[in-house]
Design a protein that fits this description.
Low-confidence stretches: none
Radius of gyration: 20 Å
CATH architecture of the largest domain: 3-Layer(aba) Sandwich
Largest sheet: 5 strands, mixed
Number of helices: 8
Shape: globular
Helix content: 40-55%
CATH class of the largest domain: Alpha Beta
Strand order of the largest sheet: 2-1-3-4-5
Number of domains: 2
Strand content: 5-15%
Distance between the termini: 55 Å
CATH topology of the largest domain: Rossmann fold
């Protein structure tokens, strides 16, 4: 039996190291960390994420899946509930770092099961509501920025810098592996694959973003 911490990192102020530190401070004994970088939780189901898919393959009965909060497991209420139910069906225990909640499919008592499932539904609904509130706040902030200073809002920046793009290109030329390049540059494997598949697109993204910044200056 092992404890696997799953991290979804979608913004620059989130890091895998920070999420692991939080888990260890909450007295989790982490055996392995699985992380999806640069992935939006409100756009991508757990089973569609590269590392999220690994969880369904690697976790076995008796293992513990640790997550910072239930919103890590899906993009909405249905996704979160379905993911938890599937893991519990396989005998995997889900534990949250925040508030120390535990969801275990081993219980047979009907009343305990009812309470557990009601709590899952409530927490999943809270996760979706929080995500919707965040999206609404972001939309309002963008609209305000556009209205008050049209050139101030630049849109989403590329997930890589010019320096990172150059490093990826150089390492691809040496036939370095995707994992090696991702680790060396700090990018996700998905980003490295995309750069490899369409280097012209990657160059264009950097040029376009640089032009936007000049216009806003």
């Amino acid at each position: 039996m092992k404890t696997v911490l799953y991290c979804r990192v979608s913004t620059n102020d989130q890091t895998v190291a920070h999420q692991r530190t939080m888990a260890e401070q909450a007295r989790f004994q982490i055996d392995e960390v699985v992380a999806d970088n640069g992935v939006s939780g409100v756009a991508t189901r757990l089973a569609e994420r590269e590392q999220g898919k690994r969880l369904f393959d690697m976790l076995r009965k008796g293992d513990v899946l640790a997550v910072r909060w239930l919103d890590r497991l899906g993009r909405n209420y249905s996704d979160v509930v379905d993911a938890i139910q599937e893991f519990m069906h396989r005998g995997v225990v889900i534990r949250t770092v925040i508030n120390g909640l535990t969801f275990d499919g081993a219980t047979k008592d009907p009343m305990q099961k009812a309470v557990r499932d009601a709590l899952i539904g409530f927490m999943a609904a809270m996760a979706e509501a929080s995500a919707e509130a965040t999206k609404a706040a972001q939309r309002a902030g963008i609209a305000h920025a556009k209205a008050n200073k049209p050139h101030a809002y630049l849109g989403r920046a590329p997930s890589f810098t010019a320096a990172q793009l150059e490093a990826v290109t150089d390492m691809l030329a040496t036939d370095a592996g995707m994992s090696v390049i991702a680790t060396a540059t700090g990018l996700s494997r998905q980003t490295v694959y995309r750069i490899k598949a369409d280097p012209a697109w990657a160059d264009a993204m950097i040029v376009k973003w640089a032009a936007k910044r000049r216009e806003a200056a």
